[in-house]
Amino acid sequence: MSIFRYFLGCFLAAGLLAGCAGGNRPVGLSPGIELTELDSLPVPESGYVTRVQPGDLLEITVLNSEELSGTYVVDDDGTLDFPLIGRVPVAGDSATTVGKKVASQLEGRFLLNPNISVIPSELSQPTVSVGGEVEKPGSYPARLSRTLLRAVNTAGGLSEFAKSDDVLVLRSVGDVTYIGVYNIEAIQRGNYPDPQIYADDIITVGDSPGRRRLQTILQLVPLLSTSAILVDRIGN
Questions:
Q1: Is-annotated flag, keyword Signal (predicted)?
Q2: Domains in the chain, ordered, with CATH?
Q3: Residue 74 contacts residue 90 (beta carbons within 8 Å)
Q4: Which of 19, 70, 85, 209 pairs with 132 at a CA distance of 20 to 30 A?
């Protein structure tokens, strides 16, 4: 099972770790998550690995079996309908993994030592996922999201209730998933560099309960017959 490591290098660089670990900004460390001493997210070991997605076309060749060889379409549910063995889940797999899955189900039942090659003829473009409190959550081409600021701007920018100092970047390197915590406003001010973003990264912008609470209260203010002074003791 992958080990999840909680990465706070950006705050270490800004000298804010004490504030984060204290009462100002709680850091959740559930079992299996540990704090690292890294000052930046690791770079993916081999760059972007092409992953199969629904709608992709795969050229599958089974050595010495023309009947099984051909071009196959990945269905909308992320499965591949292959002769003899039926539906095989392939969404998110590399081409090599798809070949191994098909071979493992053919071996022994229909073929001895099947030799299978999978060549993507059409694949979805590499993407970055941006979610949470942005105007247009979704998956965007990685080429448009080379840094964190660019990725957030591509998703329409921060929403009204975004918590600018609670922006997470999840990145898998090998069998480890790292989580980087960033402050968008600090990056915009040049307090620390805009971090590099890679294909398959997942970006999540946190929610500010304080702003939502204040918005709800302000909606009630016009109903009051006298002036009102609001005190938010919880903060953002």
A1: yes
A2: 3-47+126-215 (3.10.560.10), 57-122 (3.30.1950.10)
A3: yes
A4: 19
% the chain with pLDDT above 90 = 43
> How many degrees, rounded to 5, is the angle at CA 209 between CA 34 and CA 180?
30
Of residues 15 and 129, more confidence is placed in: 129
Look at residue 229 and tell me whether its pLDDT is greater than 90. Answer: no
Extract the tokens encoding 66.
């023309």
d(CA 24, CA 101): 48
CA distance 67 to 48: 33
d(C-alpha 48, C-alpha 66), whole Å: 32
154-165 confidence digits (pLDDT tens): 999 999 889 998
180, pLDDT greater than 60: yes
What one-letter code names the amino acid at 181?
V
Q: What is the DSSP string of the chain?
A: -PEEEEE-HHHHHHT-HHHHHTTSS-----TTEEE---SSPPPPTTSPPP---TT-EEEEEETT-TTT-EEEE--TTSEEEETTTEEEE-TT--HHHHHHHHHHHHBTTTBSS--EEEEEEE-PPPEEEEEESBSS-EEEEGGG-SBHHHHHHHTTSB-TTEEEEEEEEEEEETTEEEEEEE-HHHHHTTSS---B--TT-EEEEEE-HHHHHHHHHHHHGGG-SS------SS--
